[in-house]
């Protein structure tokens, strides 16, 4: 009886030492399932499946996405995934690889930038109003002696009381009329054009050649997409630039912004990439 227990323990130890790729390949062969069937159900290429079963993880995305492959593979085979995932974690610890996961920011967090723009616009409009008032008063020959001290003699005071100021005539501005010439001239139209330039929403096109995690946040912090996309799919997102982009498998993704293709670089050793697209230089 004790010899049988010893044999069972040795068999379990040998099973624990089997790498995750070998476990998946053995299970597939025991189920009598062809590699082409797994490729079709998982939506991956022959290269990815070969790397997964041969434990060649340098050809695969980050460990986070490899775990997704393992769970999907085990689901197709109809076997529990905890044993294979545990073997994969042991392998990562042996190789000293850290499992980095992308951070997602929740939507709905208010941004302070718009409030700051309101203050800037208000100050600019106040400055323009003061400048306009000074121009109107100067055009009518009225001197604004705001900083001169007035004499206290009754004769001067009576003369000042008799002085009548002619109120300024109302001025109507035509559409796109220029207040004054020079580099600091200001155009006013009926639609109250923005004093400070505000960026317009832009379109980012994503072509997934090989399955990859795609995460895109716009300048407001809104998550436009955060999902694992299959090979051959295309995604278009629209938001306020610049876009913060995280790619789980950067070599298998093509990006296009404003009608021009974007170079995906730099790419880290685990094939991930983090880019900022649409930032004005």
How would you describe this protein?
The protein is an alpha+beta fold and 281 residues long. The protein has three domains: 2-95, 434 Repressor (Amino-terminal Domain); 116-137 and 170-198, no CATH class; 202-277, Sandwich (Immunoglobulin-like). Helix content is 38%, strand content 17%. The protein has eight helices and ten strands. The protein has helices at residues 2-16, 20-31, 35-42, 46-53, 63-77, 82-95, 113-139, 154-162; strands at 177-178, 187-188, 202-208, 212-217, 223-229, 234-239, 243-247, 253-257, 260-262, 273-277. A four-stranded antiparallel beta sheet has the order 6-3-8-9, with no helix packed on it. A hairpin with a 5-residue loop joins strand 4 (212-217) and strand 5 (223-229). Helix 2 packs antiparallel against helix 6 (82-95). The protein is elongated and about 100 Å long. The termini are far apart.
Mean pLDDT rating: 77
The CATH first-level class of the largest domain comes to Mainly Alpha
Q: Kindly, what is the distance between the CA atoms of the first and last residues, rounded to a whole number of angstroms?
A: 76 Å
Q: How much of the sequence is in beta strands?
A: 15-25%
CATH topology of the largest domain: 434 Repressor (Amino-terminal Domain)
């Amino acid at each position: 009886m004790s010899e049988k227990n010893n044999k069972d323990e040795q068999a379990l130890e040998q099973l624990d030492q089997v790498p995750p790729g070998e476990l998946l390949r053995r299970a597939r062969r025991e189920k009598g399932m062809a590699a082409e069937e797994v490729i079709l159900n998982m939506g991956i290429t022959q290269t990815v499946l070969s790397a997964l079963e041969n434990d060649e993880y340098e050809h695969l995305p980050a460990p986070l996405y490899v775990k997704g492959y393992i769970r999907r593979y085990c689901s197709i085979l109809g076997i529990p995934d905890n044993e294979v995932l545990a073997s994969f974690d042991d392998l990562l610890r042996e190789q000293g690889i850290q499992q980095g996961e992308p951070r997602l920011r929740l939507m709905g967090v208010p941004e302070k930038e718009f409030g700051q723009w309101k203050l800037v616009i208000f100050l600019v409009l106040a400055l323009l109003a003061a400048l306009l008032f000074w121009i109107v008063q100067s055009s009518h020959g009225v001197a604004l002696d705001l900083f001169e001290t007035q004499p206290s003699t009754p004769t001067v005071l009576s003369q000042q009381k008799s002085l009548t100021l002619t109120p300024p005539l109302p001025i109507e501005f035509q559409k796109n009329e220029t207040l004054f010439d020079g580099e600091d001239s200001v155009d006013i139209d009926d639609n109250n054009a923005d004093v400070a330039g505000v960026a317009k929403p832009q379109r980012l096109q994503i072509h997934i050649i090989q399955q990859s995690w795609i995460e895109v946040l716009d300048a407001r912090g809104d998550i436009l997409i955060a999902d694992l996309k299959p090979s051959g799919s295309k995604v278009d997102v629209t938001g306020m630039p610049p876009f913060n982009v995280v790619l789980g498998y950067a070599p298998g993704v093509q990006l296009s912004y404003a009608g021009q293709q974007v170079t995906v670089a730099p790419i880290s050793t685990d094939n991930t990439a983090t880019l900022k697209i649409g930032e004005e230089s």
